[in-house]
């Protein structure tokens, strides 16, 4: 049915190993991973959009690949910044708690 009708396909994969297996099957069926988003607002459950390869032009594939590469670079940069910021804030919080302990002792 998939080979005959070539529908757009949405799949969920919560973990990297699941995604790798799904992606291999979809590539064998000549589908291309096109988008990713969370299926639910309350929690992140990745929903993957696959398009039939023949429905996407070579220019669209190249443009999408460049865009995704830029997005990944941005995400990784932001993630590093957030990690550094969280570490810095945690360190400052601990230092404040130590200072309070030194100033007030057991009176807190």
TrEMBL record:
This is Uncharacterized protein. It comes from Helicobacter ibis.
């Amino acid at each position: 049915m998939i080979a005959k009708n070539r529908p757009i396909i949405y799949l969920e994969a919560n973990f990297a190993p699941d995604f790798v297996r799904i992606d291999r099957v979809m590539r064998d069926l000549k589908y291309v991973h096109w988008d990713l988003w969370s299926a639910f607002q309350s929690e992140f459950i990745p929903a993957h959009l696959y398009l039939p390869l023949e429905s996407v032009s070579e220019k669209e594939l190249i443009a999408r690949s460049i865009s995704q590469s830029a997005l990944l670079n941005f995400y990784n940069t932001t993630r590093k910044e957030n990690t550094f910021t969280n570490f810095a804030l945690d360190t400052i919080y601990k230092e404040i708690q130590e200072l309070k302990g030194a100033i007030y002792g057991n009176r807190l």
